[in-house]
Design goal:
Elements: H1 6-15, H2 18-21, E1 27-32, E2 47-49, E3 71-72, E4 75-76, H3 77-86, E5 90-93, E6 117-119, E7 125-127, H4 133-143, E8 146-150, H5 158-169, H6 175-182, E9 193-196, H7 209-222, E10 232-239, H8 248-258, E11 269-276, H9 292-319, E12 326-334, H10 353-367, E13 373-379, E14 389-392, E15 395-398, H11 400-407, E16 415-417, E17 419-421, E18 425-428, E19 431-434, E20 436-442, E21 448-454, E22 461-465, E23 472-477, E24 497-500, E25 502-504, E26 507-512, E27 517-522
Parallel strand pairs: 1-22, 2-5, 2-13, 5-8, 8-9, 9-10, 10-11, 11-12, 12-13
Antiparallel strand pairs: 1-17, 3-4, 6-7, 14-15, 16-20, 18-19, 20-21, 21-27, 22-26, 23-24, 23-27, 25-26
Length: 523
């Protein structure tokens, strides 16, 4: 792997001139069509997923009120502060595969009296249920996020799921609401989203498409919250990672055809899962120490998500031309080999500049399909897979993926515009990728915000845009190492730095370093 000198990179970041460092930098033209606004970018596209898996909940979120680690009623103070800064819009819980063996009654009442269960899906470890319904709903309120609960379709009945929803949401003088009150919560919580199962084609029941559609319709009929709450029921949809065993197109078609309400209603939301990893459960590569082939293929897997989403959206459009059913990509992210020395079933992995690219490219894809995609939830929030936060006992670090979430915050609720990028490519072996990927939008206060991703690990690139303006400034995440990452000994190795463009012939131009991810606001 060829590397830029660190001093050269620093000089670029400070001076904003890549062409001075590399006069052979290719030129890419970007045309943004400001006359064609799209549907607003839902805040929930920047959502998170927290499963009872490894150290995602216990130690990641919950340490208990008696812990020596600084906490707020048992929640890690450093984690709460970091998530508040991201303005996390929604958190999905308790799974994942864990959800379909979860009995909500195990997680209510005095913690000392809650049963201890075996987490058979993730490591065979025990879970003492210290983190249950009250802890999750209170945590969501604490960080300012909407609650998205995945109900158990795999092993509990519609009646039991309806009781859970009533316990959470009822205002009545009834048994379940009074039980909630006796457990310490007088007012009902707002349950904005309810997942009707999880991966019903797999760990949620191994259902065939027609069985899954029938189960979804049945549970939707019986599980309700007060109408004034506006709870959205989310049907468990397909996955794009198992082509040999699971046809995501056929599954989506059956769900849209037979999985929704009858008598003139419509399915409110359908989920989709996709992990950027080798297809059909082929061996995964390492999270760090990878080759350029590992870089190129990982970005290729990421960009393949858009092809699949176009397929899914096309099927949805046939059955729902008015686009009343939202598409939620409620599990997405990179999946590598677990870190050496960690428990394999805990799915703990490091997070590098490559993952920052995965996140940015994924956000750009979601922005291009906002008329259908209304939520996305990274897998997962803390200590699991492509996490935004990693912890080690009392220590905490923010990952490159966290910093991309932070960079992209101006896009929340912004109005996107289509952008055309000239056909320059990054190539490695048989892999051919767009050299530059972008997203452009107008924020609620009227400013244009632009995200730029340079996928090439070697070449800087000059990005010439059609955008007028007097200046554009923001921040960039870049390094001279493909696997640059933050560690507990060096938590600030890779952090955003100031970045700006310049005006040439009345249009904004940016000098993007190799592997850079930048977001700027146009003045």
């Amino acid at each position: 792997m060829r590397k830029f000198a660190s001093a050269g990179l620093l000089a670029f970041l400070l001076a904003g001139s890549a062409t001075a460092q590399n006069p052979q930098a290719p030129v890419v033209d970007v045309r943004v069509d400001l006359s064609r606004p799209g549907a607003p970018i839902a805040r929930q596209i920047y959502g998170h997923f927290a499963e009872h898996l490894g150290r995602g909940v216990y130690e990641g979120v919950w340490v208990g009120p008696d812990s020596k680690i600084p906490n707020i009623r048992g929640y890690r103070t450093d984690v709460v502060d970091a998530l508040k800064k991201l303005q996390v819009p929604v958190i999905r819980w308790p799974g994942g595969c864990f959800a379909d063996l979860y009995d909500w009654r195990d997680g209510i009442g005095p913690r000392a009296k809650r049963p201890t269960r075996i987490n058979v899906h993730w490591g065979g470890v025990t879970d003492n249920n210290a983190f249950g319904t009250h802890e999750f709903m209170d945590f969501s309120e604490l960080v300012g996020a909407e609650a998205y609960v995945s109900g158990n379709v795999g092993s509990l009945s519609p009646y039991e799921m309806s009781q859970w929803v009533e316990y959470i949401t009822s205002t009545e003088n009834a048994t379940l609401a009074n039980e909630r009150r006796s457990n310490g919560r007088e007012k009902p919580w707002t349950l904005k989203y309810l997942g009707i199962g999880n991966e019903t084609w797999g760990c949620g029941g191994n259902m065939r498409p027609e069985t899954a559609a029938a189960a979804n319709a049945r549970y939707m009929a019986f599980v309700n919250a007060p109408a004034s709450m506006g709870m959205i029921k989310v049907a468990s949809g397909a996955s794009g990672n198992l082509d040999k065993w699971h046809d995501y197109k056929a599954f989506t078609e059956e769900m849209m055809k037979n999985g929704g309400p009858t008598f003139g209603g419509h399915m409110e939301a359908l989920s989709y899962h996709y992990y950027a990893m080798p297809p059909d459960l082929a061996p995964k590569g390492p999270a760090t120490g990878f080759t350029e082939e590992g870089w190129a293929k990982q970005l290729m897997y990421t960009l393949d998500l858009e092809r699949q989403l176009k397929d899914v959206i096309g099927i949805m459009d046939r059955y729902d031309p008015q686009r009343q059913t939202a598409l939620y990509v409620d599990e997405w992210g990179a999946w590598y080999q677990p870190e050496k020395g960690s428990t394999p079933g805990f799915l703990y992995q490091q997070n590098t500049l490559r993952d920052a690219q995965v996140a940015a490219l994924s956000f750009n894809i979601f922005h291009r399909h906002t008329d259908r995609i209304k939520m996305a939830n990274i897998a997962q929030m803390i200590n699991v897979l492509q996490a935004v936060i990693l912890t080690d006992k009392e220590k905490m670090i923010l990952t490159p993926t966290y910093h991309v979430f932070d960079l992209y915050r101006p896009f929340m609720e912004a109005t996107p515009f289509p952008a055309t990028v000239s056909s320059a490519e990054y190539r490695f072996g048989d892999v051919r990728l767009p050299l530059v990927d972008v997203s452009a939008a107008r924020t609620r206060d009227g400013k244009i915000v632009l995200a730029i991703v340079n996928t090439d690990p070697h070449r800087a690139v000059t990005v010439r845009t059609s955008l007028p303006g007097t200046a554009a400034s923001g921040r960039i995440l870049a390094s001279d190492r493909m696997d640059a990452h933050n560690s507990f000994d060096a938590p600030n190795t890779l952090v955003p730095k100031p970045f700006s463009g310049k005006v040439e012939n009345g249009r904004l131009v940016f000098q993007m370093p190799a592997m850079g991810v930048a977001v700027v606001t146009v003045e």
